[in-house]
Amino acid sequence: MPTLTHNLDPSSAKTEDDYHRLLIRWFQFGVFTPIFRVHGAGTHTEIWNFGNQTSSVINRSAITLRYRLLPYVYSGFWRVEMTGYTMQRALAFDHSADAGVRDVADAYMFGPSLLVTPIVSAGDTGTATTREVNFPQGAWVDFHTGQDRLRVRRNGRWEY
User: Fold this and answer.
1) Where are the CATH 2.60.40.1180 domain residues in the chain?
2) Which GO terms describe its molecular function (predicted)?
3) May I ask the CATH architecture of the domain 88-160?
4) Which of 34, 122, 141, 142 has the highest CB neighbour count under 10 A?
5) pTM > 0.85
């Protein structure tokens, strides 16, 4: 299966605050999936209907990034069509020699170059903003800063 997708649907939230936090996380995760769409049958799913604060966070952290990645995503889909490539893969597919990533279930490669590690747990207070990442061995570039001298040791920690 070369692609998967999901509905951006925070309907499982128990409170209004949880709804907005979950909606933001769904959008942030959706950026790194081949098909990025909001679920809604008979509901208003336009971004401006989510409230000013939530809409602002979604615009800054997800939609702007998705537009920045469109050439990358389109190139990936071209590769899927032409070669049977898979846009999303478990880390072990690309890093089979690294035993440290074989059992990582909540991170994946998106296209040939992006390691995606979404925050999938709300944390104790429901507001998790960080997580631990087990990077495969090799050289990695920080997408946001462009710093290209990062190396990863066997235990997955950044080494400068």
Assistant:
1) 88-160
2) hydrolase activity, hydrolyzing O-glycosyl compounds
3) Sandwich (2.60)
4) 34
5) no
